[in-house]
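Reply to dn_fold:

You asked what the input looked like. This is it:
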Amino acid sequence: MNEKIKNLMFYLIGNPKKSSLEHRLFNSISLVNGVINILGSFGTFYLPNFLILFTLSFVTGILFLFFYYLSRFKNIYYALFWPFNLTILFYLSINWITNGGSIGGSHYYLIPALVIATILLRTHNLYFVYSIYILVTILLFGIEFFKPEVMTLYKMDQDRYLDAGGNYVFILILTGILIFILSKNLDLERKKSDNLLLNILPEKIALELKENDKVIPKYYESVSVIFTDMAGFTKIAEKLKPDELVSMLDHIFSEFDKIIKKHNIEKIKTIGDAYMCAGGIPTENFTHAFDAVSCAVELNEYMRTLKIKKEKSNEPFFELRIGVHSGPIIAGVIGKEKFAFDIWGDTVNTASRMESSGIIGEVNISKSTYDLIKDKFICEYRGKVNAKNKGEIDMYLVKSS
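and this is what came back:
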């Protein structure tokens, strides 16, 4: 039921993923005003100028729904700011003069009207908008004070109390609806921004950034870093169209994202066809090496399966080179605007060398990682491997768990 209500609301006011906050607010407010004016028009029959008031409420209600249609289904809303507000002011002005003025409570409506104008303000000049509303209010009070004969007043106190009381209750309901619309849309916007932030940063880091506007770099005594690279990427990339290449990488890395999440590994970044992630950050743990190697084995198995499938359909495909190394690192957030969570240290460089000097299609790990997982995985000693800028490094191949 909740899902059906949510889908209905998205249909009526717009999906937060596709519509901006201002657009959804305009849709909501124009729809609510249209419906309320049309329904309210049928409550004017007991008033002195009921024919004028009925026509005024009904026609402006239709006009508000027309604005809603243009905004929701034709994607025109910014240009409707003044037509919408001027319609509201015209409605309130005629209603004021023909329905008892301030005595009947017409002035109550100017408060939510200004609230609506402020909510929909966007880049319009705040002072100009407020000036218009203030001038209209002064003009209406001036007419009532200096030219009372043009006002239609109530014949009986009972009519005045009924209308003023009804207007007051109606304003309370309308204000409540406006606050509800605003709060719900702001909540949706907050969730959307939070989700975007969590797609960029680990949750713990995102919370620290929101609370302190900065992230203090942290030293980690022991983590396990995974580096992967697509062997033969350059040659295959030359044979594919750019969109095909990007689509293929997106598919692979999206699957990588699922696999690392399952093993409690944190994604750091992608650089071209390289994928980097680490275990033991941002929350330290003692299982990072086991998690990282288990993850690396599954990543490797996924690529093997995908390669077999591609070969059957005679499609070109990459093979995976993967390396894992464990050791200390420093992690933090760099940048002020387009910030990114990153890690630094010799451990990162060594993990990269494990990958670049590793055997294609194998999980290549360093001795430090091997020492942490040797009781849980069967590994084969490859020997000392000459790694660029690192000299000779002991390397092991993970064979099975």
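Strands lie at 218-231, 265-271, 274-279, 319-334, 340-344, 363-366, 378-387, 391-400.
Hope that clears it up.
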